[in-house]
Amino acid sequence: MALHWLIAAAVLGQIGLGLVMTRMTPGTMEQWGAYQLHKSIGVTILLASVMRLVWRLMNPVPPQPAGLGPWEGRVARAAHWGFYALLIGMPLTGWLLVSASPWNIPTVLFDTVPWPHLPLDKAAATEDAFKQVHRALGWLFAAMIALHVGAALRHHWLLKDDVLRRMLPVGGERAE
Ligand code: HEM
Ligand code: HEM
Q1: What ranges do the domains of the chain cover?
Q2: Ligand 2 in reach of 56 Cβ (< 6 A)
Q3: 77 lines ligand 2 (CB under 6 A)
Q4: Cβ 20 vs Cβ 34: under 8 Å
Q5: Tens digit of pLDDT at every position of the chain (176 positions)
Q6: Which terminus of the chain is more solvent-facing, meaning fewer CB atoms within 10 Å of its CB: N or C?
Q7: How far apart are CA 93 and CA 72, in angstroms?
Q8: Nearest residue CA, atom 15 of ligand 1?
Q9: How far apart are CA 24 and CA 40, in angstroms?
Q10: CB-ligand 2 contact for 9 (6 Å cutoff)
Q11: How far apart are CA 53 and CA 32, in angstroms?
């Protein structure tokens, strides 16, 4: 749960920052700083998501609420696995694109920890290809978040079950 909310906040910030920084005046120190911050948060999301996935695979999940149609449970499960794929695929394509960039700008996490680049041939065409994928995944991510939040609110307000409440740090009933 803690990882869910930390990662959720980071991902929302990251999409906003990605959109803003790519529209800043090129070559300024501000833009440089924004890119470094984007890369730092992105790599942190990658590490946190791998931890979360390991946790998820090693621990049982609460049962789905009763009364869902057969397709509803399946769609929810597929969407959640889709999120794990995005949580790893999104930073990975970012990492790949900076690694393929002929600019070869170093990545220094939070101005402190140097982060290595992947051993790729530097080529603008490869960088561009990963950039396109990174961008497309960003929009897919945003659309899935909208559906996910819609689904959570539907459970809370329309179906009146405890799916949202049990995901909150207080107020839910948890079988432990
Ligand atoms: C969950 C993590 C991440 C999310 C949600 C995310 C999201 C985004 C978004 C929405 C954009 C703007 C795309 C556009 O409109 O041009 C962007 C651009 C970018 N991202 Fe990420 N990103 C993530 C992780 C990373 C990581 C880990 C790196 C590098 C280590 C990275 C490097 C970049 C770069 C260099 C750009 C600019 C690409 C361009 O010039 O068009 N991102 N990202
Ligand atoms: C913004 C990025 C977000 C991501 C990437 C994300 C991802 C996920 C994932 C992967 C799960 C499934 C957990 C599992 O079964 O392994 C989940 C569950 C859940 N999320 Fe999110 N989430 C985000 C934001 C939100 C927000 C803003 C809300 C609230 C409005 C929310 C509410 C929930 C709830 C209630 C569950 C529990 C579903 C259940 O018990 O089956 N999430 N989320």
Answers
A1: 2-62+71-167
A2: yes
A3: no
A4: yes
A5: 999 999 999 999 999 999 999 999 999 999 999 999 999 999 999 999 999 999 999 999 989 988 888 899 999 999 999 999 999 999 999 999 999 999 999 999 999 999 999 999 999 999 999 999 999 999 999 999 999 999 999 999 999 999 999 999 886 555 44
A6: C
A7: 30
A8: 19
A9: 18
A10: no
A11: 31
